[in-house]
Amino acid sequence: MGRTEHSNPAEPADPADPADRLGDEIVRAVIDGRPVRIVAVTTTAVAREAARRHQAGPAASIALARGLTAGLLLATLTKDDERVTLQVLGDGPLGGLTVDATAAGTARAYVKHPGVALAAASGARASLAAAVGRTGLVSVLRDVGLGETFSGRTSIASGEIDEDVERYLEASEQIVSAMACDATLAPDGTIAFAAGILIQALPGSDGAVRVAAARGLIADGEFLKALGGGPRDGAGVLGAVLGDQLGEIKILDRRPVRFDCPCSRARAGTSLALLGETELAAMILDDGRAEVTCNFCRAHYEFDEAALEIIRRETARPAGPPS
Ligand SMILES: [Zn+2]
Predict the structure, then answer these.
(1) By 3-state DSSP, what share of the chain in percent is helix, strand and coil, each rounded to 5?
(2) In Å, how far from its chain's centre is CA 118?
(3) What pLDDT shows up at residue 100?
(4) Do strands 136-143 and 83-90 pair parallel, antiparallel, or not at all (unpaired)?
(5) How far is the CA of 61 from the centre of ligand 1 (A)?
(6) What is the distance in A from the centroid of ligand 1 to the CA of 265?
(7) Would you state the pLDDT for residue 146?
(8) How many Å lie between the centroid of ligand 1 and the Cα of residue 266?
(9) N or C: which terminal CB in the chain sees fewer CB atoms within 10 Å?
(10) Is residue 162 pLDDT above 90, yes or no?
(11) Ligand 1 centroid vs 253 CA: distance in angstroms?
């Protein structure tokens, strides 16, 4: 009984669905002999799981998909045990978007108001600007292990999430980058296919020319065309968007990605303990119970009077060296 089983009680994958058959993955690649790095990620199941757990409307579903995809791409930049928290805090009706992703390929996310009845504005590309907001902040916190963190922020420029993260990478982390993340919706409003790509110049190189070329292909609609063509694997996305325009794509490695939330009853108990003894005593008197809901996955943890009393006593115990 791993925690995967707890945090992923999804309906069984439908083998007839091409996205389920392919599975989500992250693919790292280089262009032979060029100073650029390339990452593609497919996130259909990850985004569907998030949308289902949050009962997300169409705009929120696309926002979750773009955010989860961007978060997973951001988590590939450095070493293996990194965790990235991406927040896009706009002034639109969706409220803030928060994404947690790890270099190991797990991700979770929520938006503050997932039920907002707002379609993503249609056009060549579904626009999220009205839902996310055009004013606000993009912030990224990288936990690189051993208590070491790195954070940066920029202002929202377009409200489309991927464009804002691309701008963050250039302005805050000084990495010349081209990024595209998006999802298509099936007629029933569920996610049909979600994916993203990131092309970056290696530091200190003249790879910027190639990144500009990649950005041109994205602007010309090659990424949306690839998405509209239906589910394909990560290498297929790269091939469809870039072709051989930047040079020959060499795949370095591919690994699966999945929705995962590491929350647990023990952590929910810890969050209750933080309320302090007085608050807990009042809770026991008033209701004799408490319920903690995880923002990221909507899992509920219930605590009855006896459980609350145990937490209260732990909290009341004077701090000191463990006996
Ligand atoms: Zn959770």
Answers:
(1) 35, 30, 40
(2) 21
(3) 97
(4) antiparallel
(5) 18
(6) 10
(7) 81
(8) 12
(9) C
(10) yes
(11) 29
Distances (CA, A) of 153 to 136, 157, 162, 164, 166: 10, 12, 14, 11, 12
Is residue 66 assigned to a domain? yes
- How many A from CA of 295 to the centre of ligand 1? 7
Confidence of residue 318 (pLDDT cuts 50, 70, 90): low
- Whether 112 and 210 map to the same domain: the answer is yes
- Let me know how long the chain is: 323
Pair type for strands 258-259 and 106-111: parallel
Range of the domain at 193: 20-259
Looking at the structure, do residues 123 and 79 belong to the same domain, yes or no?
yes
Distance 201 CA to ligand 1 centre (A): 35
Residue 2 lies in a domain: no
Neighbours of ion ligand 1 (CB under 5 A): 261, 263, 294, 296-297, 299
Mark whether 289 and 308 lie in a shared domain.
yes
238 shares its domain with 287:
no
Task: Tell the residue number behind the tokens 């980058």, with chain if given.
Answer: 177
Tokens of 96: 């803030």
CA 202 to chain centre: 24
Q: Helix, strand, or coil here: 249?
A: strand
Q: Work out the number of other CB atoms within 10 angstroms of the CB of residue 59.
A: 26
| H or E element in which residue 237 lies | helix 234-242
- Return d(Cα 53, Cα 66) in angstroms, integer: 16
Distance 215 CA to ligand 1 centre (A): 36
Q: Distance between the two ends of the chain, CA-based, in angstroms?
A: 32
Beta strands (DSSP E) in 125-206 are 136-143, 149-155, 177-185, 191-201
**Among 88, 122, 81, residue whose Cα is nearest residue 103:** 81
Task: Determine the distance separating the centroid of ligand 1 and the alpha carbon of 293, expressed in angstroms.
Answer: 8
Query: Does residue 89 lie within any of the structural domains?
Result: yes
The Å distance, Cα 113 to ligand 1 centre, comes to: 17
Question: What span, in angstroms and rounded, lies between the C-alpha atoms of 28 and 197?
Answer: 10
pLDDT at 205 over 90: no
Tell me, in angstroms, the distance from the centre of ligand 1 to residue 264's CA.
7
